């Protein structure tokens, strides 16, 4: 089964071509890394895939549905099945770790029309329904941070914060996780911990993972396949088993 299919995707900004006709597929359960130097178009690709940015042309299918032709409502539903993690974790600093994870249920709760979004956004660990709170505790356990549930988010290290962002994404029971440079602002050890957690969770839960990186060794260690972007095109699309660190560093490091 193909979870994400990109066909002939083109995107330019101010007349400058960034993505010049990309084609690739991501099968269910695969961990795929998109690599490329600064400005290669990694974030643009992620934004187009989620339709946060409209591509100039080409198609995007997620879970067999054409993203290009989705209504705003369908787009919201699609996004609520995709866990998204960015380089910056965007936690609410003054709220507890647990409250931040609880906010990961906003998309799902909104789909089920349980309450208006603004009401769910005000949920905290003290006011959220029991079922949501216990699910959030469970997600925190999966990232190894249950003991920190009641700490303020702004008291955590960068690596811990990014693990909370992963727990928040897990609240959506995602079938697909898309992460844009999730380890780029972390020190090397915290970065490895976060990437290895991603890889382990995705394999255990059969979640498909698409992450961008400009750390070629992390891509080799935590992806099944690597796609490299260069001059708007895919310059490499290979299983990691077939690749060597030296080759990638010399070309994309
Ligand atoms: N909103 C925008 N408006 C104009 N140009 C943009 C916009 N977003 C990206 N670009 C340009 O598109 C190109 C690709 O940018 P993008 O952020 O996708 O690269 P990247 O591979 O994610 O780089 P990095 O490794 O620095 O994150 C760059 O030249 C960038 O300046
Ligand atoms: Mg980027």
Describe, in plain words, how this protein is organized in 3D.
The chain has 2 domains: 1-80 and 178-183 and 209-253, Rossmann fold, CATH 3.40.50; 82-173, P-loop containing nucleotide triphosphate hydrolases (Rossmann fold, 3-Layer(aba) Sandwich), CATH 3.40.50. 37% of the residues lie in helices and 26% in strands. The chain has helices spanning 42-49, 72-80, 97-102, 106-111, 117-121, 130-142, 158-170, 188-205, 216-222, 245-252; strands at 2-13, 16-27, 31-35, 57-62, 65-66, 82-85, 176-180, 208-213, 225-230, 233-239. The strands form 2 sheets. Strands 6-7-8-3-9-10 form a 6-stranded mixed sheet, with helices on both faces. Strands 2-1-4-5 form a 4-stranded antiparallel sheet, with helices on one face. It starts with a strand and ends with a helix. The structure holds adenosine-5'-triphosphate (ATP) and magnesium ion. Residues 13-14, 18, 36, 38-44, 214 line the site of adenosine-5'-triphosphate (ATP).
């Amino acid at each position: 089964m193909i979870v994400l299919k990109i066909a002939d995707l083109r995107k330019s900004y101010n007349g400058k071509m960034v993505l010049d006709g990309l084609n690739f597929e991501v099968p269910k359960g695969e961990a795929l890394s998109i690599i490329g130097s600064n400005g290669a178009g990694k974030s643009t690709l992620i934004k187009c895939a989620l339709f946060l940015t409209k591509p100039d042309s080409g198609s995007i299918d997620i879970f067999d549905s054409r993203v290009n032709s989705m209504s705003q409502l369908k787009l919201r539903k699609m996004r609520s099945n995709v866990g998204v993690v960015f380089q910056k974790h965007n936690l609410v600093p003054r709220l507890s770790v647990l409250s931040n994870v609880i906010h990961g249920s906003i998309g799902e709760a909104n789909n089920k029309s349980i309450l208006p979004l603004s009401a769910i956004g005000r949920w905290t660990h003290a006011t959220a329904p029991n079922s949501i709170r216990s699910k959030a505790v469970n997600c925190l356990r999966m990232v190894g941070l249950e003991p920190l549930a009641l700490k303020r988010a702004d008291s955590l290290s960068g690596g811990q914060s990014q693990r909370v962002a992963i727990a928040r994404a897990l609240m959506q029971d995602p079938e697909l996780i898309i992460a844009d440079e999730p380890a780029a602002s972390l020190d090397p050890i915290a970065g490895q911990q976060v990437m290895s957690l991603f890889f382990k969770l995705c394999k255990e839960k059969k979640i498909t993972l698409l992450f961008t990186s400009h750390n070629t060794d992390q891509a080799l260690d935590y992806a099944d396949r690597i796609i490299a972007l260069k001059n708007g095109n895919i310059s490499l699309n290979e299983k990691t088993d077939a690749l060597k660190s030296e080759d990638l560093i010399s070309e994309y490091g």
